[in-house]
Amino acid sequence: MASSDELPGPYPARGGGDKIPPGDPTTMKTMMLDKGAAMLQSLKPIKQMSLHMCSFACYGHDPSRQIEAHFYVHRVNEDFLQCAVYDCDSAKTHLIGIEYIVSERLFESLSSEEQKLWHSHDYEIQTGLLVTPRVPELVAKPELQNIAKTYGKFWCTWQTDRGDKLPLGAPALMMSPQDVNMGKIKPGLLKKRDDEYGISTESLKSSRADIVGLERKNPMADYWVHHGKGLAVDIVETDMKKCAPFP
After folding, report:
1. How far is CA 124 from CA 18, 107, 162, 207, in A?
2. Whole-model pTM?
3. Whole-angstrom Cα distance, residue 44 to residue 76?
């Protein structure tokens, strides 16, 4: 089983006109229990998410497969962010993965093998692909300038774009859009996002001409661009490591 598999499972996990996971409707009893728990529990990790970014991503083994992605960001410190990634910003969204974002300084401390898994952000910010929905551009500009000098590692765990109604198969490594043929976002996907938020990516690109990216982009990042090789995950059986004999 690999993250590059096209058809990992049969219906009802795949197919159909909607993306709703199979299951019984939520009962009134369950909804009341959820509301009660929300009143009593702190939910501190979720409340640390203070920023919503919307951009696009390409599958690391097939850049022609592209998705719109919504990143809900928890800033751990000035050098490290962690994001929950969804496929839209509605109440019925799907949690499709996670992204970690590090500063240039932290990225340079990683091994070359690890750096292969990361992508740069400057192109998608300078071209207006990455936006902060409903936040005025003038307000968002300082944050965008910071993100333009970072690297990210995005694992997609639920490929809703191919119709999966459940998270199937291995996680897929995702890459950021780039200024190469297969890395350019499809016009239809871009128009759909722009129409939804009433924005113009072209206008944003012009207003961001002064945003500066990485001083020296490491060639191990955006690996597929520089080396022509995609990256996928294989799931293989292996002998378990046992700390003590099983009874």
Report:
1. 29, 18, 24, 14
2. 0.90
3. 13
